[in-house]
């Protein structure tokens, strides 16, 4: 007969077993949320080179549809005609986008008209807006949508921009579009304060078909279904594919709420928090002498906000486009440091900020 174990040893053993089990459970859940997304589409332009028969055939097995660039301002993409020809030849559904350069409604209407004229058989049409805002931007952007809708025979009209820049548009402008296509490069599905229908989750997805790293997209939870993007008359090989194969599942959405909540735009915070008296949260002014003293780091690609009141985010023209609260993870393309000052830029999402080094840290 074994001697009786002291009561405290029994309690301690039970507690340790419980902690170990809970740790394993949480570990499995955390790992499960990090998955490689299977793109539903790529966006392609002349920068990816010439589309060949072999590339197009392979591309059809990688994605459900592609989004082709038509123009940059009024500059026609030099691979557009060949890209369209290859998509038609191999039955790959495609939408098109124009990188917008307009400064007013008249220019917006002209750009929209030209996008349609150059690709009249596209499944949908995208206004790719990434430049700075002015007093006429909202009116012009809504006018782009109205013009396109009046000439394209009822096909979807879509607005593309970075996560924070999208937030700078008025709600009435966003409502002028049938869908929103948003760029935000992160492992978890972003949760901004507006609904979006297509998520460009990376610019570094390797395509075996193209032999290059591409911008890649997935359909988020509650995004427009695959049929919205490819229509009901798509090639049977594509149209019969399940949307769930290429959409972000609810597990990732749930994990994002717990782990990456800091990436959300925090427009619901009080004005006192968003407009803290901390001088680092005012619109920064960078003088020529300051620029000379900044040095650039290419090793840091993301920063965590650690300041109590967070940091404000601005577009290139100084317009406030969002507020990142404490704990937010901000992806950055360019980082400059001068003494205790940091300037960071995210070209894709269309924001920059300037702050004290004590408000952010390397992630």
UniProtKB/TrEMBL annotation:
Example of a GO biological process term: carbohydrate catabolic process
Q: Name one Pfam family in it.
A: Glyco_hydro_25
Return the annotated region ranges for Disordered: 234-286
Fetch the InterPro entries from UniProt. Answer: GH, Glyco_hydro_25
SUPFAM superfamilies noted in UniProt = (Trans)glycosidases
Q: Locations of Low complexity compositional bias?
A: 234-283
**Annotated GO MF terms:** lysozyme activity
Return the similarity comment.
Belongs to the glycosyl hydrolase 25 family.
Name of the featured protein: Lyzozyme M1 (1,4-beta-N-acetylmuramidase)
